[in-house]
Amino acid sequence: MSRKPNYSSMVVKPSAAPSIALPSDLCPVCKRVRYLNTDMEFLINPECYHPMCSNCVTNIFKSGPAQCPYPSCNKTLRHRGFRSAFFGDLSVEREVDIRRRVQAAFNNVEEDFETLRDYNNYLQDVEDLTFDLIYGEDAERASAEEKLLAREQHFKEEIERNRRRGREAELSRQKRDAAEAEAARQRRLEERREEERARAEEASINAEVMEALARGDPGSAAEIQARIVARKRARVAEITSAHFSNLLHTGLNLNDPADAATAPSSSSGGGGGGGKNMLSIRGLRAKKTDDEDDGPYDPFAGLDLDPTRYALRERYGNTNTWLDDARVRDDHRVPGYSVHEYAARAMFEAFAGLGVIVAEEKAAEGRGLGTVGARDAAAANRTAGAGARMDVDDVFV
Amino acid sequence: MATEDARYRQSSQYRLWSFTPSHLSALREKTNTLARTQISNRLRASSPPVDPLPDFLSPAEEYSLLTFFTVELLRAAAFCQLPTDIQATAAIFLRRFYVTNSIMTYPPTTLLKTCLFFGCKAEGYYMRLQKFAEKFPNTTGEEVIAAEYVLCQGIRFAFDVRHPFRALEGAVMELRRLGDFDDDRINKAHKRTRDILKFSPLVTDAYFHYTPSQIMLAALSMADEGLVQRMMREAFSGEGESAKDKVMGAIQSCRAMMEQEPPERMADYWGTTESKNMIKPLNRMLRKCRDPDRVDLIALQKARREQAQQKTKPKPGLKDDGAVLGVSLEEERESKRRKVASKTDDVFGPPL
After folding, report:
1. Is A393–B308 a contact, with Cβ atoms under 8 angstroms apart?
2. For chain A, which residues make up each domain, given as ranges?
3. Which of B35, B117, B34 is nearest to B73 (CA)?
4. Is A70:A63 a contact under the CB 8 Å cutoff?
5. Is the ipTM of this complex over 0.85?
């Protein structure tokens, strides 16, 4: 962090923005000099951005909120608000702070909008507002401030949601980057390995030709050589082509996440706030709320397991002796035999399907499928192995 | 709608193996006619053509044979000392299999053993094939498993059969909890109902037309009507009189169906000369009109396997570029095609 003194940019802004460079040697409040206090540090308060040394801050604000010691500045400052500035130029520091705050409030992303034009308009509006806040006249600044406040207050939930989503996107982006880097590393390793393999293949051609000749393979020497060389070439080509297809594949993958949906959806999204002192955001997409309303995952896909025709009791007394045995005796209990499970299953089976009247429910099926089913069954019975039937290795076809 | 019913509707027993009586009889008729045409074609095409075609079984005759073989299966299961659930599962497998396959097409004596063995598998009851085969005369393990895959296809891979046995335990628990009846009465009804459930619904079509709880209540009403009335009053207290009456109607018709085959008939009818006299001519007919291709299932399976192996073997011929480069392009394409094709096919086959 270099805090280079920059006297040349000491431009005092026409408005209330007290743009000054951070002093390097002399505290403008207590006039102490760095020469005598080598560990002197200048602090600012984002209320008014007037720099003063840490000693002054402690002296003046330790005991509670007080007025800024600068003449002509009547802001009340607190000890907690002081911090060291990041930029040497305090006007830059202020602008960055303001931008950060505006960004936190207006944190929609391009996917939120129906069209690119809507998104650009939104960006333009936000930038106008930011400019007013930073460089605007008093009146402009006040109205911009009002808009910002309104946004911060009225759209708390939306802002929070956008923020969370942004964070998630950031996390997933990081993960993806890491995975890509890892994949690239693997690819490089693989490449090198394949290169070595290809080279080894090339190198072994001569040896193999000699061997084949010694073995006395059929064909003339030239033929043998040609054959072996051809085979080797094919192997090498295979190795490299496998490698290329690999590359091609990853290349495609890399492009994949980039093409986010930009096509405008036909439904007109509700615009942002409509008040006078609010920045109106137009062209927002209708929010998808299904991911929030989903509730917890249901492994039975909505099937209710509570019985309706009977109530499962904790205990079924004196049913039969072996059940009591199972409840009491250790050699039954230790392997995990659960009497309750048994009772639950027996009770379920006693009442399951009681209301299923097969003669009624399967009536339609009987009419529709009877002939078809029999025809298929006939196909299965045909002696000649016709290819038209199910491809299973029935030994009796 | 009651959640119990919604859960039952998701079972394969409801989705694949519940039919209206008319639908089921239509299916059986269709199966019969198809088997008839197919076998007569086959007999005509055999090298000395069978000129006067034999009499084929009618659907009704097929059905009585099926009942006979179901009883045989239960007898064999009892002989093997298999648990009740497995007996019932095997019996239902056999009945389901012969809905879309004719008795004339696949020999029921073999399928019966296959059903028993596969029922053990489906219920998670381990049994060694060799040991199992030794229990039957003139039976090899090969014969038992020859038709296993065909059986799986025939029952449309629905291995889970919902039985009314545990439901009965639940009903007894509920009756005891209500406390309106003394224990003796409940115990007597319980025992009688169990006996009924072990036999009557398995040798009739009850499993196709009614849900396990309805079968259970029908059997219970055969044993003691009062208990059923009390239970139904309790269960349908929240659903209204009309719903209850409807279910009672289903239970009554189920009861009527099961009363044709009360458990006493196992000893009084099946196995006596009366039933033998009824079955004997049918069996004789069956021997004449069965599908000559499928009499020896083992040989058929073996031939089929060999054929399949030969099909996959690459033909020795001219070497193409692929062979020179070390990759058989043809083979690769074939395996890819198989992969793609297997994805599109429904493993459960066409609808019935």
Report:
1. yes
2. 321-384
3. B117
4. no
5. no
